[in-house]
Amino acid sequence: MKESITKRVHELYWEKDINCARTALICLGEFFDVTIEPQTIWSAVGLHGAGGYRAQCGLVEGPLMFLGIYLHNLGKTESEIVSACYHFASAFEKTFGALRCLELRPTGFSESDPPHLCETLTCRAIQFAYEYISEVSAKGENSGQVFQQGETIP
Prior knowledge:
This protein is mostly helical.
């Protein structure tokens, strides 16, 4: 899976010049065989740190959007989806040290940055999201619930 993610992220960044949130949505949709509607892709156009403001990172927001779509398609309740998103954000922060571009990309966004500065981080984050969503899916199918209250997913 890692090679597939690396290849697809590179294509989307360098051939399509797509931001991290849309790249995550597209990759996760392809890997889980879920159609992401064009309107949803467009809704994520400014989600790379809130349009470069360095707020919540698109590598968090894209997977959170995908979790909502995917878990809804699996028949999960709104509270189960909210719980899964909460636990994803917690696990992401524990793994990567932050949720905001301010910390994940400490130099910010400037004209002098090399193109696609976050490509390596994007690959790691999409791999993390893929594994998390796979685990959530398996857990939900086996137990009928995505999470128990207070439970964390590594």
